[in-house]
Design brief:
single chain; mainly alpha; two-stranded parallel ribbon; 5 helices; 2 strands; 3% strand
Length: 159
Amino acid sequence: MTTRTPIGTPLDESVRATVGAQLQGLMVDLIALGLHGKQLHWHVIGTSFKSVHEQLDVIIDDARTASDEVAERAITVGVPVDGRPAAVAKENTLPELPEGWVEDADAVERYADAVAAIVVKARTAVGELEAEPASQDLVIGVLQTFEKHLWMLQAQLQG
């Protein structure tokens, strides 16, 4: 493994370090969100199984796309990322999931909590990335996507 930075960028080193830290944290949480979603997708049971099962796939696809875009943005500004399983397991901040079967309403609530954690992380990153508008813009898009998913999950819990 090389320690040199093969990707040049005009960004100040302190800005690049901030960008790297914010994007790394968001990336590992997005990877974990995709994994959590699949765990629930495979194990959800109940009368709303089909709709929850399908909704989870949509959010999982968005989490996977967003994690890739966030990682590639970090690489673009010359910051390596760590998306290895051990790093994701160690660094992610999402709430833990139970093993095995999960009732549909519980699955929605648990995934809403995980998506809410992404929203909080993205909102924090938006504020921290003011000095680097391109990265900030990317994170704003992630925030918008997952706020919409959070709304849709929370709406299912009403009633």
